[in-house]
Amino acid sequence: MRISELSRQSGVPVASIKYYLRKGLMPAGRAMGATLAEYGEEHVQRLRLIRALTTLGGLSIAAARDVLAEIDQPHDDPRGMLGVIHYALRTPADAGATGAEELTERVDSLVEAMDWDVSEASPHRLALAASLRELSRLGMDFGVDDLLPYATLAAAVARLDLDQIDGIEDRMALAERAAIITLLLEPVLALLRRLAQEGEARRRTAEAAAPHTA
Amino acid sequence: MRISELSRQSGVPVASIKYYLRKGLMPAGRAMGATLAEYGEEHVQRLRLIRALTTLGGLSIAAARDVLAEIDQPHDDPRGMLGVIHYALRTPADAGATGAEELTERVDSLVEAMDWDVSEASPHRLALAASLRELSRLGMDFGVDDLLPYATLAAAVARLDLDQIDGIEDRMALAERAAIITLLLEPVLALLRRLAQEGEARRRTAEAAAPHTA
Description:
Two copies of one chain form a homodimer. By secondary structure, the first copy, chain A, is mainly alpha-helical. Chain A has two domains: about 1-55, Orthogonal Bundle (Multidrug-efflux Transporter Regulator, Chain: A, Domain 2); about 55-210, no CATH class. Chain A is about 65% helix and about 0% strand. Chain A is built from nine helices and two strands. In chain A, strand 1 (about 30) and strand 2 (about 35-40) form a beta hairpin. In chain A, helix 1 (about 5-10) crosses helix 3 (about 40-55) and helix 8 crosses helix 9 (about 170-210). Chain A starts with a helix and ends in a 5-residue tail after the last helix. At the A-B interface, helix 3, helix 5, helix 7, helix 8 and helix 9 of A face helix 3, helix 5, helix 7, helix 8 and helix 9 of B.
């Protein structure tokens, strides 16, 4: 298909498509002449992924390019790729990730207590330490014992996540799926938590008002 | 204390403090003369909260002011306040929240299946619908049955969250704590999930490589 049809099918304006091509987020189409190129279904899918990463995922164009480059790499171990993609993705809390070294010990203890096999190089260790430091400064010191119940639930979420990519043989499809699950399920989980918080808060208020009725 | 001492104790530069005062994020100090004001411990605490909301929380100055204004309001029901604060906070996925009306029915079914008492006016309903639509566009259609296991875990997280503010009598302290838990625990949970994902991915890879050893 021509670029105009690609724009129609993907819902992405032609100017944006050209911009993504120029920035290297998307492979070029098959050249059909000096100024004409032919695009395929894979370009439609790629455009949808770019849009999802940059809008819902909140990634910059540069960050999206890094993630897509990672997805395009061949990987020996399909599941290990998840970790690589992870590290390319923005860290939710890297704004304050310096000077939190004193709390990384607590993170290390937690990872050990959960028996998680996590690379020493994972940027999420320091990011978590930074978040804990910030909470501690605000008077909420979360020790390992306070974090364990949350970590146990996170492990259960991770099992559901991995179930979503089990059995996918195609490496490209697997990488794409892994990025989508990690990045785009994050707001879904945050929203489910907020809805659940409101439900739980109202339930407790109702129970406090009428303690003798269940 | 004077503004210089407030700056020292809070770690926030004097220029930033003056900016927050001007923007109405913080109550003025007690006037001690034409150009002198006296600040107290509550100003130190407030500055820490402003920094946390705007750095780790990722809020704009305007959004932080809205949240703080909500915290400063008197509330009849301390727990209900959580919901009000919620709605003032940024929605993780509001970037694509238009045109997802067709998926709100799915969200409504989920909320009903979970027996969550959530206001019809909650902006998180539409935001969740928008996230689900985006996932569906990318080939991952999450129906109510797919979402239920995630929602069940979110409910467990919400119970832990509410436990953190149980027993706090002071309304101001409660509101502040609620905002911190909702907003600043979000990156913590996201990071725990990513660490858990890496652990789970490696565990499954190891099991697949050596299926006969446990």
